[in-house]
Amino acid sequence: MKQTPSHSSSLILVAAGMGTRLGAGIPKALVQVAGKTLVEHAIDRILQVKRITEIIVVTPAGDHRMAEALAAFGSMLRTVPGGSSRADSVRRGLEAVNPGASAILVHDAARAFAPAELYDRVLDALDQGQANAVIPALPVTDTISVVEPGGAAGAEFIDHTPPRSTLRAVQTPQGFNAAVLRQAHAQLDHCTEAELEKVTDDASIVSAQGEKVQVVAGAQQALKVTHPEDLETANQLATDQNSSANTARETMILPRIGNGIDVHAVSQDPARPMWLAGLHFPDDVGLSGHSDGDAVAHAACDALFSAAGIGDLGTHFGVDRPEFSGASGVSLLAEAARLVREAGFEIGNVAVQFVGRRPRFSARREEASQVLSDAIGAPVSVIATTSDGLGYEGEGTGITAYATALVFPRQR
Ligand SMILES: Nc1ccn([C@@H]2O[C@H](COP(=O)(O)OP(=O)(O)OP(=O)(O)O)[C@@H](O)[C@H]2O)c(=O)n1
Ligand SMILES: C[C@](O)(CO)[C@H](O)COP(=O)(O)O
Question: Site (Transition state stabilizer): which residue positions (predicted)?
């Protein structure tokens, strides 16, 4: 069996029907449900299916409102005027499909709330290649009988009753190998309007050509809006789908990142101890400053404050907190972590890189990470580099530390 790769599929959305049974006085796909037309609801869901790369909307012939409203969707969506029956509308849609398309889906705008998963299910089955046509369907709950007219005043009589377990209520989107669908529709070329009227879906035409049609599980949400009472269900579906989208958005925990940079000059005092990344380096001359000059710890503090949006080192360790004057970098960092948590955040991690000729760092990298991680109760990684002899870092007269922190709001 020929495989129909669906990674770039075209979709024909038939929306040209008049909606006689609905009786809204306008084409059915233009009827509004929860603030949007049915055709717009359908397109919203189709756009979630990344494998659909072309949408042809078949619009009510002679009525420009839909085509005008859909112009805003851009070049991925095109409109063509429909025909006098669904089959005729599909055929007009087919003529507009990119000739290179290998897979084509046909969907009713009247089934506006078919979820994106349903399209994917059909396309997945088509990809598996057991059949050149795949349709979604649901088991039926009523007993279904085939009837024959025969009596007076249009009375009907049962001809036979197929076993219910063999029956399925067929839905859309229906998926096809493009050549197979085109070939099947070509068989309808000489049909009269009345004959076309009796063709209620595309799978039945393809099946009549002897092609196997695979059935996959349908979805209750793919209900076809047909009668006025269906609008109430449609409204409920729109509300449910909107509220689950909103809930997902509301419950999504967005992390926040922050940056911090600190620069310290190497002290002129050869006796000044070198503290960096929470460690003492006895062979190096220290960094100048009122504090211990630990540029790595200070940059990490600023990154944490910036991620939480609560100011910077100056805001928290200024003159109004004399207990921190001259405090070690590690104790400032521990206090910064406490303040970030107090502001309602948890800490994901902090990453710091410093640029400098000294100290030699690689042998003590793990030790530094451990000390700083213990201070904030979250992973801190520290790496070092040189500046290839350039600038104050290259001359050995100063050090720059760059830090990034990731925090996330604690769930209430
Ligand atoms: N000439 C037609 C008839 C139907 N359709 C589309 O085919 C789908 C299924 O048809 P149906 O639900 O029967 O819609 P209507 O034909 O509008 O309904 P009615 O039979 O009540 O008039 C709908 O999305 C409808 O817009 C179409 O594109 N062109
Ligand atoms: C294609 C269809 O939705 C499958 O169930 C259905 O046959 C359309 O029928 P309608 O009479 O055009 O509504």
Answer: 21, 28, 290, 386
CB atoms within 10 A of CB 332: 22
Evaluate whether 184 touches 205 at the Cβ level (below 8 Å): yes
- Please give the structure tokens belonging to residue 174: 């229906």
Q: Which residues are annotated as a binding site for a divalent metal cation?
A: 262, 264, 298
163 preceded by a cis bond (ω within 30 of 0): no
Query: How far are the Cα atoms of 7, 36, 79, 120, 222 from residue 217, in angstroms, in the given order?
Result: 21, 27, 30, 12, 11
pLDDT tens-place string over residues 63-122: 999 999 999 888 899 999 999 999 999 999 999 999 999 999 999 999 999 999 999 999
Class of the CATH domain delimited by 256-409: alpha beta
pLDDT tens by residue, 125-183: 999 999 999 999 999 999 999 999 887 888 999 999 999 999 999 999 999 999 999 99
Tell which one of 55, 56, 108, 196 to mutate to probe ligand 1, the residue whose CB is within 8 A of the most ligand atoms.
108
The tokens describing 333, both together, are 């960092």
Ligand 1 atom 14, closest CA:
17
CATH class for the domain made up of 9-251: alpha beta
- ipTM score of complex: 0.94
Domain boundaries, the chain: 9-251, 256-409
Conformational region of residue 379, where left means phi above 0, alpha means psi within -120 to 50, and beta covers everything else: beta
